[in-house]
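ok trying again, last paste got cut off:
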Amino acid sequence: MGGTLFGFPEKSIEVYDPQTGTWSAPKALPPTFDYVYYAWTYLLPGGDLFIAGHQGVTRRFDWTASPIVDDPAQAWNTIAGDRSFMGDTGELGTSVLLPLRPPLYALRVLIAGGDGSLSPADRVSKVQITAEMIDLSVPAPAWTALPDMNVPRPRQFTATLLPDGKVFIAGGVPNSPGPAEIFDPDHPADGWLLCAAMNHVRGYHSSNILLADGSVLVGGDSSGGEDGASTPNERYFPGYFSQPRPVITGAPAAVAHGAPFTVQTPNATSVAEVVLIRPGAVTHGWNQSQRFVGCAITGTAAGSVDVLAPPDGNVAPPGHYLLFVVDGARAPSVGRWIRVTP
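nice, full thing came through this time. structure:
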């Protein structure tokens, strides 16, 4: 969507039809949509789209409309402005769609870090340490400031969703591995939990990916360039690795949208949440594929939990997900692959 090709703006969208294997004709975007490169765009449960930046104006819009309209009532200015100065610094900062939980699937988006400085002499900017969140489910959405991160992160660093509903970040600290940090969207005023220091510097082409056991694989670029192939990967093990964790002993390989299904677990009576997390696809500090979707629990037996799959593809796009059960202490099981189908 959008983008710039060798300096020439391409302000249009195309839609791929997997049944026919074809792309639609380009549909023009309003000229005010000045998003380039890796626009932080999210499919919302209502079927519309939300662009969270990196530019300072964020927008929600109906991509099916003809023509597509830039509605001023659906545009919100961020507090810190543009998080990616488009000079010699490329794409900076990070963004994540926070967990979607039934029955309302409240829409919250977080943005953090980056560098909005306008000149090399002003590289140490307040933007680098800040974070913001918007709740699109309230009558009057607005970006609100979150507590600052523990260290400035002007380069790329990925916000990774954990199965306990928290957000993990690491990397993006110039010339230093820097610490990991964890944010709990359910308790935003608590800010960022300072965690262990990482072992390697991660910059421009680094990536953080959730693994099936709930750990995070951290790898890629160590210098801000493109030489990450020579830098060792490392794994971060969140605190729930030191807790007793529930176990999934059985689950279906596939489930249709809105269909009931059963998860077998000897810990059924302690399960507080059943969640699906879509696998990641990271580039330039943004995981454009990850998605955390809760499933409604409809019943609990001695060795199983009955749940409903997400209602449609706007809430949970079709494809493979990691299925987790999470107990009341927010300790998740090891994930199991499951395919969500229309």
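cool. The CA atoms of residues 103 and 265 lie 23 Å apart. The chain is about 0% helix and 35% strand.
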